[in-house]
């Protein structure tokens, strides 16, 4: 095994950084921060394309085990509050809990599911944070660069169409049961936030950038009614910000 002191130092650096930025830290945060786990592998895991998270970690099981032992020791010394979190798959059909370990050992699974929360947060903020962590993640929909085909209905999906992936299959939005959602391109953060907040179902839309060799966020899919209300709210807010030119004309500010 590589120098244990080096591993422990990398664990602590990754954990401290995550805690500083988000007031809580998880085993996944540490593995990503150490450079052992790529965010794309976490997405594959959420989508069911890899059987367990450890399959996506780029190091040996013995090193993972030692790193997680160091992480739990660090969390105890910091006085962080442990909080078990449920991780759900981003797949169609009934909700399914995700698997972390190759062995599927219940004790190891529970350790992976445990987040550690900063004790300086109030009880109310800790509860809100726990709800945020446990919220089922939005599914990811892809804008395709080449023609494809739906694995279920066999419909032809032309370049630029939306496509939903699950395991090794591709689905059109109708078969993925998200065809009732409207597309909102990125660009207006406030409109996106309001539209997502009012939508019971939403999805993140990404597109692969050949220039940067990565998937980049393009927008979101939200319910049409929620998008309509968000636009109305934004327009109303814009109207409130407009100066009353008629009143200014009728009652001009004196100058001397």
Notes on the structure:
- The chain is of the alpha+beta class.
- The chain folds into 2 domains: 4-134, no CATH class; 140-238, no CATH class.
- The chain contains 9 helices and 11 strands.
- The chain has helices spanning 4-22, 27-33, 39-46, 61-78, 106-113, 123-134, 189-197, 224-241, 245-250, and strands at 24-25, 81-84, 114-117, 140-143, 148-149, 156-157, 162-166, 169-171, 181-185, 203-209, 214-223.
- The strands form 3 sheets. A 6-stranded mixed beta sheet has the order 8-7-4-10-11-9. It has a 3-stranded antiparallel beta sheet with strand order 1-3-2. A two-stranded antiparallel ribbon has the order 5-6.
- α7 crosses α8.
- The chain is globular.
- The model is unreliable at 245-256 (pLDDT under 50).
SSE-based structural type? alpha+beta
**Rg calculated over all Cα atoms:** 23 Å
- Please report the total strand number as a whole number: 11
Q: Which percent range describes the beta-strand content?
A: 15-25%
Q: Give the overall silhouette.
A: globular
Q: Main sheet, how many strands, which sense, barrel? A: 6 strands, mixed
Q: Strand order within the widest sheet? A: 8-7-4-10-11-9
SSE topology sketch:
Blueprint: H1 4-22, E1 24-25, H2 27-33, H3 39-46, H4 61-78, E2 81-84, H5 106-113, E3 114-117, H6 123-134, E4 140-143, E5 148-149, E6 156-157, E7 162-166, E8 169-171, E9 181-185, H7 189-197, E10 203-209, E11 214-223, H8 224-241, H9 245-250
Parallel strand pairs: 4-10
Antiparallel strand pairs: 1-3, 2-3, 4-7, 5-6, 7-8, 9-11, 10-11
